[in-house]
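Ticket opened by: R.M.
Priority: normal
Category: complex prediction / small molecule

The reporter submitted a protein together with nicotinamide-adenine-dinucleotide and asked that the result be attached to this ticket for the collaborator who will pick it up next week. Submitted input follows.
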Amino acid sequence: MSESISDCQLSIIVTGGASGIGAAVAELVLERGGYVGILDIDFTKCSTNLSSRKGRCAHVVASTLDQAAVSDAWSQMANALDRPINGLVNCAGVPPIPAPIETYEVSEWSRLLESHLTGTYIPCKVIGSELARLGRGAIVNLASVLAFRSGPVLAYGAAKSGVVSLTESLAVHWAKSGVRVNAVAPGWTETPFLRPPGRADRDLSPIIDATPQKRLLSPREIAEVIYFLLSDSSRAITGVTIPCDGGVIAGSGWAPYGGFDIFPSSSA
Ligand SMILES: NC(=O)c1ccc[n+]([C@@H]2O[C@H](COP(=O)([O-])OP(=O)(O)OC[C@H]3O[C@@H](n4cnc5c(N)ncnc54)[C@H](O)[C@@H]3O)[C@@H](O)[C@H]2O)c1
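Result attached by the on-call engineer:
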């Protein structure tokens, strides 16, 4: 029987790992004694102290949309970490801009689909195929509550529904190869994604109001669920998307009844 991942430590690649949820995943894996290769197009705002983790943390500047660059990054990171990679987390992606379909530019539609769907497909194709060849591994993709619920960010929701579908198809495709493929669907999480350039002063109170837990989620909370899906503790789970959303999906039917606070005593 092959060695389990909990026996030998995680050794993972995180796309988009210089910021937000990806950076939280990198920190958590490093804290727990694992190894991380970070692939990102922009390390200028990277919060992980890469140099202090020499030998356990490698990084490569590359785009998830460049298949050859992802392939090179895989080899570079496996060499730098000096061990086989056994996990992939796909966090890279650009924030969407809300607009009605009448004025929603085709270029914006393509940009979002490329960033979130193609940008998940290419690392899955390159790195997932390597994991399948090695006969073991776990992949976690980033979906969103907007994969399951409507919103004014058309291409973003469509791309994230695509990520859910891709996750299911690859999970079945690689099930016998020892590679598991799952996804998480975060609700609104406090990262730079919520306040992209030009929207730095965005009012986040409507988001907090729409979340039954009445708060933004932290990147660390999402990372904890991703860690579970990477580890052998979840070895029976493949092909699922786990909402990590503070109740957003469950709570969407309450609005017509007056919102979450119609029974004031129970919400105290
Ligand atoms: N923050 C939220 O509220 C939220 C909610 C649901 C889902 N998500 C998803 O979680 C993932 C991570 O989001 P985040 O909040 O950490 O965002 P973030 O903006 O903090 O980080 C995204 C990272 O991806 C990198 N990136 C973008 N395009 C890239 C490319 N082509 N190649 C390599 N790197 C690239 C950016 O440089 C950045 O470091 C995204 O897929 C996002 O859609 C976020």
